[in-house]
Amino acid sequence: MVWPNRPASSRHPLQPATATPMPVHAPHCHAAALRFTVAASAAAPTPRKAAVIVGGGLAGLAAATHLTSLSVPFTLVEASDRLGGRVATDVVDGYRLDRGFQIFLTAYPECRRVLDFPALRLRPFYPGALVFAGAGEPFYLLSDPFRLPLRSLSAVLSPVGTLPDKVLVGLTRLRAAATPDDAILSAPETTTAAHLRRLGFSPSIVERFLRPFLAGIFFDPALDTSSRLFELVFKRLALGDNALPEEGIGAIASQLAARLPAGSVRLSSRAAAIDPSGGVTLDTGETIPGELGVIVAVEQPEAEKLLPQLSSMIPEKPKKKSERSTVCLYFSADRALVQDPILLLNGSGKGIVNNMFFATNVAPSYAPPGKVLVSVSLVGSFAGRDDAELADEVVRELGGWFGAGEVASWTHLRTYRIGFAQPDQTPPTTPAGRDPRVGDGLYVCGDHWCSATFDGALVSGRRAAEALAKDRGLPS
């Protein structure tokens, strides 16, 4: 696989490493704190001839920042009490808890264009992964052979894949990095599982490494996700770094929100009905006029409730269960049982843990001084088990990884259940994005209308704003 850029050294991979900010250069923008204040009130008058944006996740924020750059007035209504959608971080007793396992890929072109990377103070992951293969076995280290060739030699004889598998990973990396995006997005489409078989990967490396790694990205252990999306993400992994913002993944949304005009955002305002000619009606009965148009930037299930016609505009897919849910559990510990900023994957095929890592190894700011934050991710909803039951089971399972005595002192901090972690990305898909226009003066954006990535959400939001401006004859 392809991993973040990190200078090679002779240090053993399980010895302490010091995380330093990643030197990524990007155009300068205004920095934003994780916690931001939106200067808005329910009593603020809506500007005459304005647009309305429904939803304050990444897509809605992208649409809003683009309209701001065009000096187009708008009101953004958000149902919750904060902006960011699924891209959020809570501060609990000094710990920074991202709402679900999320890693930022620095090679996304729209992210590089829109975000101020230095202000995010990105902290890189180690360019590799540790694979738990089963009780009584050591962790097997996999490193990027192009960035850490000497350390990669230790993986040649590991049972995680065959030698041809490891050569094939490198060849797939080179091909992905050299393939233009339009070629990836227009290639014949199948599932990721079928695509990996066609590429020639053995069951060993698929089951022990690729399946848990990709399940952590797509929340799809069956690997039914589109081969186009796999290739697109694989390319970004090849060209960039995996990282976390120093103040949590929510810092991305905070940075965008800080650019919006005062009074343009209304929190705790849920849209109940949309009429492009009449505007957006809230669940309180109030109507917000949207003479310039309405941009719907909410998650797919909510978008289809507000706009029932959307379901007929998306290609019908085979009737099969395609859950994209995840549960993320956080624990406090006194010490990290692995010292590198590295992802640990469950390659044993047993248990409920998919992946985990010691977040403070990546960014020490994720916990108070002297404490360690442990992040554990499960794939699925686990609706039949309560939080305490799940936490106990996770601790027991990880006791088999590290030793029961090592994890017994961990303190459960919080559990996040993300019922809709991603839209359905099974074939057929349109990762290049659909036309945002769904009616006269009505536009849709979000990762369900493009690719299910940070970049897909940002691109779709910008395109919706561009379409609105063009349709209204506004300067762009």
TrEMBL record:
Task: Spell out the SUPFAM superfamilies in the cross-references.
Answer: FAD/NAD(P)-binding domain
Q: Which InterPro entries match?
A: Amino_oxidase, FAD/NAD-bd_sf
Q: Where is this region: Disordered?
A: 1-22
Q: Which domain of life is it from?
A: Eukaryota
Q: What residues does the Amine oxidase domain cover?
A: 58-468
| GO MF term list | flavin adenine dinucleotide binding
Name under which the protein is recorded? Amine oxidase domain-containing protein
Q: Which species is this record about?
A: Urochloa decumbens
